[in-house]
Design a protein that fits this description.
It is found in: Secreted. By secondary structure, this protein is of the alpha+beta class. Among the domains are: 150 residues, no CATH class; 126 residues, no CATH class; 105 residues, Roll (Mac-2 Binding Protein), CATH 3.10.250. The protein is 14% helix and 25% strand. The strands form nine sheets. An eight-stranded mixed sheet has the order 21-22-23-24-1-27-26-25, with no helix packed on it. Strands 29, 32, 33, 34, 35, 36 and 37 form a seven-stranded mixed sheet that branches.
C-alpha cells in the first residue's frame, strides 16, 4: 500500500504546485497612484485604447494630449513624421492598467522612471528610427549620454520583469484575461483585500452610521459601550453610549448575552433618537430589552443617559439565542429580530416558540416607535403596531409579528438597491444560525414562515412538524453544511461607490470557521450563486495600506454612510477581551473613477479628546508626484531627518543599479510618523519655501489655505529645522498637489504646537476646498520682524 500512497502524495503535491503557479501568474494591475485601475466616466479623446479600463480620467488624458502637442512643436518635422505614433504610445502608457509596472513603481519608496520600460526588441527598432525623440520625452541626462550606444541604451530602458515591458504586455493573454474583473484564485475563490479601520475592541457586535450627513460611524461592544469614530477614523476618547452597568454578559467565550443591537432613527438629524437592544438579568430571570435614547443637547457625540425609554422587554427562558438586530425600513418602522429563547431544538411548548404566533420569540417584529408615550395601544406599550402587519386582527397571534420561524437571526440587513435603477431596494436578508447540521440565509418577506423548528436549512429537523401541510414555510436562498462553518454571520448586499465589481454581491461570513462568503442573484433565474471569498495572495494586495489577513471569529458586518462595507472580527471571542478589529472590504481589481465617490461630511463639534487611528499593519506609502526637472522637488527636513536604510540607487530614466530585485527580501524604508511635513517647490527655488504636504493616516496629502496664517506656517517651519516663518503662502502659490488627497482644512494654530495635527482643523480628510487653495510657507533662519518699527 506504500506505493499508491506515495503516488497519491506526489499527485497532491503536483496539484498544489500547479495551483501556486497559476496564482503567481496572475497579473497585478496598478496605477501610478498605487491604486487599482478604473473605467473612465467617458471615453478618452487622446489615449483612446484605454477608454474601457485603465489609469487615466479625462483630465489626465487631456494633459497628455497637451504634452503631445508640445512635443510636436519641439521635434524636427522629419523625425515627427516618422515617430508621432511612437510618441503617442509612450505617453499613453501612463494610462495603462499596468502603469505601475511599466514605470517600475510597484515599490512606493523608490523614484519613478521617466519613461515606461521597453521590450528590448521594440527598443532597438525605436532607437534605429526615433532615438532623437527620447531627449524630448525624458530629461534624464544618462539616457542622453547613452543615445549613441543602442545596446546600452536599450538595456537602460529594459525592465527587470520582462513580462511587463511595452509592448509585450499588450499581447499577453495572462495579463489581459479578466482584466478589471474580480479575480478568482486557482480554487475559484474571489480574491479581496482589507483595510484596517479600528482595533482594540471587545467583541465588536455592530457598526452603524447615523444617516445624518456627518459620515461618523459607531461601533458597539458586547459589554455595552458604543464608540464614535469620525470620517478619518479617529475615535472619541469618551464613549458615545455606556450602558455596561445594565448589560448582562460575562467573560466566558461564546456567551451570547450582552449589548446586541443599535439603530438610529431615520430622522436622527432632527430628533436625536436611537434604539438599542441588550440583555438584562435580575436573579434567575433574564430578558432582552429594546430602549430608546436621545442624543445630548450639549454634545452630538454623546447620548443623554437619563433619556432612556424602554420600548419592549421579552423574557428569555435560556441564556442563548438572543437575536439582537435592529433595523429601520424604508417604511419608517423599526424591525426587531429575536431568537427562539435558547436551549437546543426550541423545546418550548407543543411546536416551539418560533412556530407560536402568540410568542415574540423566534420572530421578526415590526413596530411604529413614533407613537407618543401618551398614545399607547391597549397593552400600554410605548409604540404602535403598523396597521398592515400581517397578523393584525388574528386573536391567536401577537400583532407585532412580521415573520416567524427563525431560530437565531444573527445579523440582517436591508438592501439599499442598485445605485442607478434602485433595483433590489428594500430586500431584507438574514443569516439564521442553525442547530446541528446547517446554516442558512433567508430573504425575509411579510407574513412568511421560515420553518424552524420543523426545518433546518433545506432539511427536516422535526419530521412530524415538517410533514404538517399547514406549515407553508419558505426555504432559504442558501444553506451550507457544518463542514464549512457552524455559525452564520449575516452581511450586506454591497451598494457602495468605490468598488463597482462588488455591486449586488451579498457578502457574509461564519463566526466559527472564519470563512468569508458571497451570494449573487442571477437576473435570469432568480437563483443565488455562491462564491467563497479569499484574501488576495501574491501581489494581489500589494497596495499601500492594504492587508490580506484578519482575526478569525467574524462577529458582524456593517455599512458606512456612503455604503462601503466592513466586517468585525476577533481573535478571542470574549466580551472582555480587547482583541477585536474592524476591516473595510476592498476590491483590488477595479475602483471607481477618481472623483466620483467624494463625500462632504457635515461638520460636528468635538468636545472629547480624539485618538487618531494608525493601522497596525500598513504597506509603504506612495510618493506624491512623478519627479522631473521641471516639476516640484521636496525639501528634506534638516532638523529631524527620517531614518533611511540603504537601498539600491536608480537612474532617473531607467533601471535600478545593483541591489535586490523586487519581491525579494531587502531593507524597508521607515514610514514617516503622523504629523511629519515636507515642502514641495518648483525647480530653482531655494530650500525653505514651497507647498506644504503633511503625513497622516498612512498617506501624504496637502493643506488648504482656509485659515492658514503665519502661526500655522511657524509650526511647519520649526518641524523643518527653520527658526522662523517669514510668510504663509496661499492660493497654490507653489503649485497644486493634484496627485494627493487634501488632508487638512480650516487649520487654526496657536503657534506652539509640534505638528499641524495638534492644531485645530476640520478633521483629517474633511474639507470644502480644492487644490487651487493649497497652502505653502516661506521659512527663514532670520527673524523677519527684526528691525521693523
Amino acid at each position: 500500500m506504500a506505493g499508491p500512497g506515495r503516488r497519491a502524495g506526489r499527485g497532491a503535491l503536483l496539484a498544489l504546485l500547479l495551483a501556486l503557479r497559476a496564482l503567481g501568474a496572475a497579473g497585478h494591475p496598478q496605477c501610478l497612484d498605487f491604486r487599482p485601475p478604473f473605467r473612465p466616466p467617458r471615453p478618452l479623446a487622446f489615449c483612446t485604447q484605454y477608454s474601457a479600463f485603465g489609469c487615466c480620467a479625462p483630465g489626465r488624458d487631456a494633459a497628455l494630449a497637451r504634452r503631445f502637442r508640445a512635443l510636436a512643436a519641439r521635434v524636427a518635422p522629419g523625425v515627427w513624421a516618422k515617430c508621432a505614433g511612437s510618441a503617442l504610445d509612450l505617453l499613453c502608457q501612463e494610462c495603462s492598467p499596468y502603469a505601475a509596472h511599466l514605470y517600475d513603481a510597484e515599490d512606493p519608496s523608490t523614484p519613478l522612471r521617466t519613461l515606461p520600460g521597453l521590450c528590448e526588441d521594440h527598443c532597438r527598432g525605436l532607437w534605429q528610427t526615433c532615438r532623437g525623440l527620447f531627449r524630448h520625452l525624458s530629461p534624464d541626462p544618462r539616457l542622453r549620454a547613452l543615445e549613441g550606444d543602442r545596446a546600452a541604451f536599450c538595456r537602460y530602458l529594459a525592465l527587470d520583469d520582462a513580462d511587463y515591458c511595452f509592448p509585450r504586455l499588450l499581447a499577453s493573454p495572462r495579463l489581459n484575461a479578466n482584466l478589471g474583473r474580480a479575480v478568482a484564485d486557482a480554487r475559484g475563490c474571489l480574491q479581496l483585500c482589507l483595510e484596517e479601520a479600528a482595533r482594540g475592541l471587545r467583541n465588536p457586535v455592530a457598526l452603524v452610521h447615523a444617516g445624518d450627513g456627518t459620515h461618523r460611524f459607531f461601533v458597539a461592544e458586547q459589554v455595552g459601550l458604543v464608540w464614535a469614530y469620525l470620517p478619518d477614523r479617529a475615535r472619541l476618547q469618551r464613549p458615545f453610549l455606556n450602558v455596561s452597568r445594565a448589560v448582562l454578559t460575562s467573560p466566558w467565550q461564546g456567551d451570547e448575552r450582552g449589548f446586541l443591537g443599535l439603530a438610529f432613527h431615520p430622522r436622527f438629524r432632527l430628533n436625536g433618537r436611537l434604539y438599542v437592544y441588550y440583555s438584562v438579568g435580575l436573579g434567575a430571570r433574564e430578558w432582552v430589552r429594546v430602549s430608546e435614547f436621545r442624543v445630548s443637547e450639549d454634545d452630538v457625540n454623546a447620548v443623554d443617559h437619563g433619556s432612556e425609554r424602554i420600548i419592549l422587554e421579552i423574557e428569555e427562558p435560556a441564556a442563548n439565542h438572543n437575536g439582537g438586530q435592529l433595523l429601520f425600513g424604508d417604511d419608517g418602522y423599526l424591525y426587531i429580530f429575536t431568537g427562539d429563547g435558547g436551549m437546543a431544538g426550541d423545546p418550548f411548548g407543543e411546536f416551539g416558540n418560533a412556530q407560536n404566533k402568540s410568542s415574540l420569540l423566534g420572530k421578526v417584529l415590526r413596530i411604529d416607535v413614533d407613537a407618543e408615550p401618551s398614545e399607547p395601544p391597549g397593552r400600554g406599550a410605548p409604540y404602535r403596531v403598523p396597521p398592515d402587519n400581517p397578523f393584525v386582527g388574528d386573536a391567536a397571534a401577537r400583532p407585532e409579528v412580521f415573520a416567524l420561524g427563525v431560530r437565531n437571526p444573527w445579523r440582517c440587513s436591508f438592501d439599499r438597491g442598485e445605485r442607478a435603477s434602485g433595483a433590489g431596494r428594500g430586500r431584507l436578508l438574514c443569516g439564521d444560525v442553525g442547530q446541528g447540521r446547517f446554516e442558512e440565509v433567508d430573504l425575509v418577506r411579510r407574513g412568511r414562515n421560515y420553518g424552524w423548528r420543523a426545518r433546518e436549512g433545506f432539511e427536516c429537523y422535526d419530521r412530524q412538524l415538517c410533514a404538517n401541510a399547514s406549515l407553508d414555510d419558505v426555504l432559504p436562498i442558501f444553506a451550507y453544511p457544518h463542514k464549512l462553518g457552524k455559525s452564520v454571520t449575516g452581511g450586506y448586499v454591497y451598494r457602495g461607490c468605490e468598488y463597482p465589481n462588488l455591486n449586488g454581491l451579498y457578502i457574509f461570513g461564519d463566526f466559527m470557521s472564519g470563512r468569508l462568503m458571497s451570494l449573487r442573484e442571477s437576473p435570469e433565474t432568480g437563483q443565488w450563486q455562491y462564491s467563497e471569498l479569499c484574501m488576495g495572495r501574491g501581489q494581489t494586495c500589494a497596495f499601500p495600506g492594504l492587508i490580506n489577513k484578519y482575526r478569525p471569529h467574524i462577529i458582524s458586518f456593517g455599512e458606512d454612510e456612503a455604503g462601503e462595507l466592513y466586517f468585525m472580527s476577533t481573535s478571542v471571542p470574549s466580551a472582555t477581551a480587547a482583541r477585536g478589529a474592524v476591516y473595510k472590504i476592498i476590491d483590488p481589481s477595479r475602483r471607481a473613477p477618481p472623483g466620483t465617490c467624494q463625500i462632504q461630511p457635515v461638520q460636528v463639534t468635538v468636545r472629547s479628546r480624539l485618538i487618531p487611528f494608525v493601522p497596525k499593519e500598513t504597506r509603504p506609502t506612495p510618493r506624491p508626484a512623478r519627479p522631473t526637472p521641471s516639476s516640484a522637488t521636496p525639501t528634506s527636513n534638516p532638523a529631524r531627518p527620517t531614518p533611511r536604510p540603504a537601498r539600491p540607487t536608480r537612474r532617473p530614466g531607467g533601471r535600478r543599479v545593483g541591489g535586490r530585485r523586487r519581491g525579494r527580501p531587502g531593507a524597508e524604508h521607515a514610514a514617516p510618523s503622523d504629523g511629519a511635513v515636507r515642502l514641495v517647490r518648483p525647480a530653482g527655488l531655494s530650500p525653505g519655501r514651497g507647498r506644504v504636504e503633511v503625513f497622516a493616516g498612512g498617506r501624504w496629502g496637502t493643506v488648504c489655505d482656509d485659515g492658514w496664517d503665519v502661526r500655522a506656517a511657524a509650526v511647519v517651519c520649526r518641524q523643518l529645522g527653520f527658526a522662523h516663518a517669514a510668510r504663509a503662502a496661499k492660493g497654490a502659490e507653489f503649485g497644486e498637489g493634484g496627485a494627493l488627497p487634501i488632508l487638512l482644512d480650516n487649520v487654526r494654530c496657536a503657534g506652539g504646537e509640534r505638528t499641524l495635527l495638534q492644531c485645530g482643523h476640520a478633521g483629517l480628510g474633511t474639507h470644502n476646498c480644492s487644490h487651487e487653495e493649497d497652502a505653502g510657507v516661506v521659512c527663514s533662519q532670520e527673524d523677519p520682524d527684526r528691525g521693523r518699527g
